[in-house]
Model the fold of this input.
Amino acid sequence: MSKEHTNKRPIDDLTGFQVLDTFKKFDQRDDIFCRSQWDSKVKSDKAGAFFSSYFMPNARSRKTDGFSQRDYALRNAAWHVTNIFRDINRQATGRKEGFFDHFTTHDEGWAEPYSFDSDDQATHDIRKAAKLFKADLFGVCEFDERWMYSGIYSEATNDSKPMDIPDKLPFVIVIGESMDLGLTETVPSALSGSATGLGYSYDSVTLITLAQYIRNLGYRAYASMNDSSLGIPLAVQAGFGEVGRHSLLITEEYGPRLRLGRIFTDLPLKVSRPKKFGVKEFCSVCDRCAAACPPKAIPNDEPSTRIYNRSNLIGVKKWTVDAEKCFKFWVNQNTDCSICIRVCPYNRDYSRWHNRIWRKLAGSPLRRLALWLDDQFSNRIRKKSNSWWSES
Ligand code: SF4
Ligand code: SF4
Done:
């Protein structure tokens, strides 16, 4: 990759990102999940059991609502397809694709690039193909090396290895896969982890298929999920939405219920425009996620450059979550947690007209009224998993 830049970019005026001179690119080795493999501060037998629980004989189900065998059975089945792609080259090459390494499960494409009439036509065709391949959201931004990992975590060495996505790919296609609203209402539960697993499984299929389509057109395309780069800044630059206090992306279409994927390509495309709809201002009057987070990992003050530990990004003024506290809670309850998604007022079904009106209100100076309406009329209490199972 080319040398590290620390300066503000013109795109930051559109996204509102505050990237300071102290900025440092993030090394994936410092990601909390990678640290659970090598850092004694995070690594533990309990963390090992947490990861093993995603495979049925080790699920450690219990009688508590949402943590029974049938809940783990569904959750682990939802993860199954993404796990297949993750492990497809693991034994032979050590690559953990979609999580530590980009996908390499591609056939040879076409030698000569297909000639589109214009960037608009190419973007139209790729968007149409992405929708066909089940992407819920689609956007394009320019390549921005600030968000690429400075190194990729290697399971074999417990150290960083060099980034292997070429740096001369000028465009990033970002896709989003929505997570099931009904399942997120049962958080915390093993059952609700099915929403996360399904998001990744659909993401894997869509990314690999779309990247193959672009290669078949004669262009370069590298499909990437949790590996290689920070997904949220690229998604914001690709016009998906804004970042909330809980450090998650909030979109107009699905609120905070989204998994992200990226394709790095040299196919000339028309970039999307970043979109603001009042999230930052709304979060400044709301603290529902911070108040509901059991380990108090979410800040309830203003955006800042404060970091809690080496899993945080240095040199960006924003709301930052204490990943060590968050992960410890996941490990203790033996499944991932999305309480901050469940309680977020933006977590709604926007196919309903009254929720679209609420979103307009939340983005207006009447945001406190929107928050009051959410308190009065939205049931954000955990739904029993047994209720989810009994619904038709
Ligand atoms: S996932 Fe759970 S523990 Fe982590 S920040 Fe959100 S509410 Fe807190
Ligand atoms: S719960 Fe409130 S403060 Fe937290 S991200 Fe959602 S809107 Fe923002």
